[in-house]
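Entry 14. Ran structure prediction on the chain below.
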Amino acid sequence: MIGKITGRVDYRGTDHVLVDVQGVGYLVFCSDRTLARLPARGGVVALYTDLLVREDNLQLFGFLTLADKEWHKLLTTVQGVGAKAALAIAGVLGAEGISRAISLGDVAAIKSAPGVGPKIAQRVVTELKDKAPKIMAMGAGGAEEALVDQDVVIDVVTPVAPETSTPVVNVTAGAQADALSALVNLGYAQGDAAAAVAQAQGEHPEAGSGALIKAALKLLAPSN
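Output, structure tokens:
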């Protein structure tokens, strides 16, 4: 499976880009946000990728960050949300906006994506609300963009999945750090995020990072 490609932009379409990797052209479908950030023709780009395999077709989807890629994969697990619909949601909201909308139950934000109706939007929020904190807990690492190497080569990588358990030592500190990192990545000010996490931890002393993120978001919600 192709996990990442690095090459030169040959051309950009309305929903895809052709990346030339040592003479081999890879047609990669991307969200509007990703396409807008790609270099002009001839520029070097690196994209994390996800390969969709069908009986009669193979489609490659590209993402600038691991968080973008993980959200795309998670969105497509919801019935009625195909790969193109997931790209539409990402194009409107971005990874941070998706995290915020799902965590706060903002169906209207999800529905604002082209081709996404109210029933599907509600389904996305309902089915993914308990899974959102895992991606948010990826922190800054998930938001790092794919690096462009000096040589244009195919580079297959395996994304590092978020940890599903926390060591017994420093459980609280680790959960607080993960929650704070996730909130800052969502755009909250460091001070506001830290105060919300501290209050949430005080109210839920045994909570893990996912529970802290959700509790802190509820505390911050009225200010949005």
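The CA atoms of residues 36 and 207 lie 39 Å apart. Will compare against last week's run tomorrow.
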